[in-house]
Amino acid sequence: MKKKQRMPRSVSHPDVHKEERQLSAPVKDKSFFRTLLFSLLGLSVSITLLLTLFLTANYFRTSLSITTAFNRNLLSQTNYTITQMDDNAQRLTQALYGDKDIISFLNMKEHDSMIPILASRTLDKQLMTLPFVDSIYLYNASLDLFFSSKSGEQLHSGEFKDEQIAALITDPAFAASYSGIPIPGTISGTSHVAKTLSYLVFDSTQEENGLKNAIIINVNPSLLTDSMQTMNQFEDGMHMDFVIMDKDGSVISTALSPQLEQNSQLYEQLYAHLHDRSKETGTKGSFLTIGDIRYFQSVTAGNKYQWYLMSLIPASVIFKDILTSSLAGAGIMLGVLLLGSLICLSFARRLNSPIQAITHMIKGEPVEKLPSALEGTQEFRLILDTYKDMKKQNRQFEQIKRETAYSIRQDCLNNLLTGNNTDSMERISHKLQGLNLSRLLTDTLCMAVLKIDSYDRFLAENNPKELWVLRFAIVNITEEIASGYFPCQVFSRDNDKFVVLISCEEGSVYRIFQNSVDKMLLDVQENVKRCMDLSLSAAYSTFFKGIEHFPSMYHNMKDSLLLKMKYGHGCIISPYMVDELETGSFQFPSQKADQLSWSIAGAKTEQALELYRQITEQLFTYDYNEIISGSIHLAYTVYTEILQKFPGLKEEGTSLLRRFLAALQDSEISGDIVSHMEAFIRDMCGETRAAKEDTSRQNTNQITQNVCRIIDRDYSDPALCLSSIAEEIGLSPNYIGQIFKTSMQKSVAQYILDLRMDTLSYYLEHTSLSLSRILEKVGIEKNNYFYTQFKKHFGMSLGDYRKNKNQMGQEKDMTE
User: Fold this and answer.
1) Among 75, 210, 225, 715, which one has the highest count of C-beta atoms within 10 angstroms of its own C-beta?
2) What is the CATH number for 716?
3) Percent of the chain having pLDDT more than 70?
4) Over the stretch 274-297, which tens digit does the pLDDT of each residue have?
5) 69 with 152, same domain?
């Protein structure tokens, strides 16, 4: 086909002319119609004949299937039950013969009141876990003594109530010839069914009187039919009856309907019928009339005891199924004929418009499914294949177009947010129209920004190569949910933010609109949490109009997201929440701050924590910058106060302060700041407590504290040195230098240099002062010695240090 499409028009081909002649030839509608009509009639007749034959065969097969399946089920269930009963009896026998109390009773030569009691306890324990066992007898041949677990009596064979068992046990000939087949016990006078099945287990040795010790296990024979009733879900009014009978005609167990139970001649009739069919083997079936009802009887004797397993099924049940199948078959035939008529009518209608279907396909309009006879022709097959190929290519093209459009749309919207777009408004408008985003130019808009909470943890827990997949999934979830509320555009921004541009109806009331936005954002948060186990915080703006407001609105939304410092992760921040913040500067109560420092100095941890909570009760009602600066100020105040009282803790205190400031940079919510500040207070209290407990340290602390106090006061003086400090204190420089180095693990000169360098670093990071001004404030002269000491202290030159700090500041701004 593709070669024909690429062939120049001026080239002729015999096959092409042949197909053109075939297409131009007149088509008679009647020929198509007659072909399909006769085919449909033939199909209907064939289906009717086949269905008739199928139903006729199915009548016989249904009856055979019911009886055969039932007989197999009966055989397998009953044989399994008999086998299970034997296994349980054998296991019980082994357990009893392995018990010392039972053996003591069987081997007892003289009457002992304690041995039967112990044996009775053993039997009770066994019977508690074996509900199918009715009772257990123990027979001591030496004393001719029976013990019954049911009554607890000890009686001689002449006095034992179960005379049948007593007679068999005391018969040496029976004991020698017993083959292990369970013996039906007492026969019920009303139902003629055995109450128990007795397993007799004799010792291998005889006593002097010729008798053998024995254990008799009496099993409820109803176990054989109870299991069948349970597996087949028998209820009152069941249609299947069961009888188990041994070869002597004793009825072992039954599962009969009330009607058969009342028939006094039932078992004699069944036994007589068995003798008539005694030569047959396997599972056979025959009809038997009992009373006024005709039954289908199935018999098998293939079990290990050659018991007869009989089932009785009313013949009406079998023929009822056949009648039901017949009625169902008649209904199916009527349905087939009706369905054939409808199909004929449908095909006749469709044949009236074949040319119209071709026209729809060429125009690209939806086409209904073509008739099978028409679709099978060469002409329609060619047209249909061409149409499908074109449709497939169009879908591929649309897919590529959508993927490309998404990437272009993402870049375009991000450029509008940054405000760095150098294109003219006319060109931007043309680009938005090409991306089907022209409504952003005219509609009233609302911007919502979602941010991944705890982004550092998100980066640590996920493979960097898979982060784009997770972001794309969040965009898809947000777009799917948000589009159900408003017309909107969703795209990712930076690494941890997602922007939703919502088109609002003109004249919308913001308070009503706000409720819908809150519901939409909450829905997004819940679905992202459920599907991806990620928490999102969200903020949205007021109404605005015009793409020129995108940068300012996005900047405001980033600032609004900082309010989660107050409201926590997973919050939704509305524009009105910004107005609830305190706009002034937070002032720490100086008295409380002093008390906090004294509590830490006194190592009173709980008191210090309570004071901190009192100081910061109102702190988190202010904006993010005020919270951060206030927390830094409080920590630094505590740090300086503690060092004034404990100069020897400068190194430990500085380390704790640096750790707090580093943790503060990653804090997103108030709970993070409180946790870090409380850890800082606890650690400072621990250090002061350790300092007080160190007596040797206290002896030299006074001199060390005085030296540290003078250095902290005069470090900005370039002339400060060990000699000037020793002169002020009134001690020799060598003595002071030795005590200070022992206490602080560094010399006075090194301490002064470290303090000046740390203060220099603070000014470089937090102020915009010039280097000359900073050096003047810290008491260092600007010369080659300074640059050498700077590189030695920080491990890098001053230029590299500034470059590194600038890069860290830019990364922090991008993350926020």
Assistant:
1) 225
2) 1.10.10.60
3) 77
4) 777 665 544 556 777 887 788 877
5) yes
**What does DSSP say about strands 536-540 and 572-573: parallel, antiparallel, or unpaired?**
parallel
Last residue of a domain, one of 318, 347, 376: 318
Mapped onto helix, strand or coil, the DSSP state of residue 665 is: helix
* Interatomic CA distance for residues 661 and 439, integer angstroms: 47
Q: Is the domain of 611 the same as that of 507?
A: no
> How remote is the C-alpha of 733 from its chain's centroid?
72
What own/partner pairs with CB < 8 Å and gap ≥ 24 does 810-814 have?
A: 812/665, 814/494, 814/495
Report pLDDT digits (tens) over 604-620. 889 888 888 888 777 77
The DSSP bridge partners found for residue 685 are none
Average pLDDT value for the chain: 78
Count of residues making up the chain: 816
Quote the pTM value.
0.40
Residue with tokens 């065969």: 57
For 17, 392, 543, the CA distances from 376, given in Å and listed in that order, are 22, 21, 61
Concatenate the DSSP letters of all residues of 298-348 into one string.
EEE--STT--EEEEEEEHHHHHHHHHHHHHHHHHHHHHHHHHHHHHHHHHH
- Specify whether 141 is located in the same domain as 80: yes
At residue 237 the predicted structure's pLDDT band, cuts being 50, 70 and 90, is: very low
Mean pLDDT of 759-788: 87
What are the tokens at 609?
Answer: 């924590």
Task: Name the residue among 299, 304, 197 with its Cα closest to residue 253.
Answer: 197
Asked if residue 617 is part of any domain, the answer here is yes
Query: In this structure, is residue 366 part of a structural domain?
Result: no
Structure tokens given for 362: 């060429």
Amino acid (1-letter code) at residue 230: T
Give the pair of three-digit tokens for residue 39: 């085919």
Residues 733, 718: Cα–Cα separation, whole Å:
18
Output the pLDDT for position 449.
Answer: 92
Same domain? For 85 and 149 the reply is yes
Is residue 524 within a helix (H) or strand (E), and if so which, with residue range? Answer: helix 510-532
284-290 sheet: strands from edge to edge? 251-255, 241-245, 308-314, 293-300, 284-290
The pairing of beta strand 488-493 with beta strand 497-504: antiparallel
Residue 523: pLDDT above 90? yes
pLDDT at 429: 84
Same domain, 492 and 609: no
Burial environment of residue 596 by CB neighbours within 10 A (0 to 12, 13 to 18, 19 or more): buried
Q: CB–CB of 768/802 below 8 Å?
A: no
> What is the structure's pLDDT at 10?
39
Whole-angstrom distance, CA of residue 197 vs CA of residue 244 = 12
Flag the least confident range among 151-160, 260-269, 696-705: 696-705
| Counted domains in the chain | 3
In a shared domain, residues 597 and 742: yes
What tens digit of pLDDT does each residue of 137-155 get? 888 888 888 888 888 888 8
- The type of residue at 497 is K
pLDDT tens figures, 787-811:
888 888 888 888 888 888 776 655 5
559 and 617 belong to one structural domain: no
> What is the average per-residue pLDDT within 610-634?
82
The answer to whether residues 557 and 606 belong to one domain is no
Q: What is the mean pLDDT of residues 763-776?
A: 86
Q: What is the CATH number of the domain that holds 496?
A: 3.30.70.270
Token reading at 76:
């397998």
Average pLDDT over residues 393-417: 72
Q: How far apart are CA 266 and CA 136, in angstroms?
A: 32
Domain boundary among 511, 537, 570: 570
Specify burial of residue 335 (Cβ count, 10 A radius: 0-12, 13-18, 19+): exposed
The strand ranges marked E within 430-472 are 444-452
Domain carrying residue 132 = 64-318
